[in-house]
């Protein structure tokens, strides 16, 4: 699997000098890129898009910073308050959708929608 985030780049962003957390950081990188591949509609054999490497790196940093606060919507301590998005990818949804559109990976429509008018006699479907 191609990686867009390197351990060295992530450690630089997090200002980590030692190798003590390399195993954890590798796990965060792998999980983040696997999640992003899923969001992009990429198979394991597909090359990772280098133009979205910034998304992986930023999400890895966010994931690392959430350790011990998993599942929390917000965190407060001594006057400092942090609010987390429901997904670490939320701020990059527009970038992800733009890439999907440009690369033919948009989600296909699942079918037709029929609306029922409750004010009309009977239960006939109203076609849009």
Describe this structure in words.
The strands form 2 sheets. This protein has a two-stranded antiparallel sheet with strand order 1-2. The protein has a two-stranded antiparallel sheet with strand order 3-4. The N and C termini lie far apart (45 Å). It has 128 residues and is mainly alpha-helical. The chain has 4 helices and 4 strands; from the N terminus they run αααββαββ. 39% of the residues lie in helices and 9% in strands.
If you average the pLDDT, what whole number results? 81
- The helix fraction, in percent, is 25-40%
Question: Rg, please?
Answer: 21 Å
Any low-confidence stretches, pLDDT <50, length ≥5?
Answer: none
Looking across the biggest beta sheet, what order are the strands in? Answer: 1-2
- Give the H and E element order: HHHEEHEE
* Biggest beta sheet attributes: 2 strands, antiparallel
Shape: flat
Distance between the termini: 45 Å
Class by alpha and beta content = mainly alpha
Short description:
By secondary structure, the chain is mainly alpha-helical. It has helices at residues 7-14, 22-40, 53-65, 93-102, and strands at residues 74-77, 80-83, 115-116, 125-126.
Draw up the topology in text.
Layout: H1 7-14, H2 22-40, H3 53-65, E1 74-77, E2 80-83, H4 93-102, E3 115-116, E4 125-126
Antiparallel strand pairs: 1-2, 3-4
Pfam family, one: Phage_connect_1
Organism: Limosilactobacillus fermentum
Protein name: Phage head-tail connector protein
């Amino acid at each position: 699997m191609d990686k867009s985030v390197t351990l060295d780049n992530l450690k630089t962003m997090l200002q980590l000098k030692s190798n003590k957390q390399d195993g954890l950081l590798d796990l965060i990188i792998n999980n983040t890129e696997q999640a992003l591949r899923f969001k992009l509609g990429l198979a394991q054999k597909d090359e990772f898009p280098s133009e979205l490497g910034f998304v992986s790196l930023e999400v890895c940093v966010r994931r690392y910073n959430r350790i011990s606060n998993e599942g929390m919507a917000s965190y407060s301590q001594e006057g400092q308050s942090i609010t987390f998005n429901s997904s670490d990818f939320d701020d990059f949804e527009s970038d992800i959708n733009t890439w999907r559109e440009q690369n033919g990976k948009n989600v296909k429509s699942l079918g037709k929608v029929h609306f029922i008018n409750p004010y009309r006699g009977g239960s006939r479907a109203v076609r849009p």
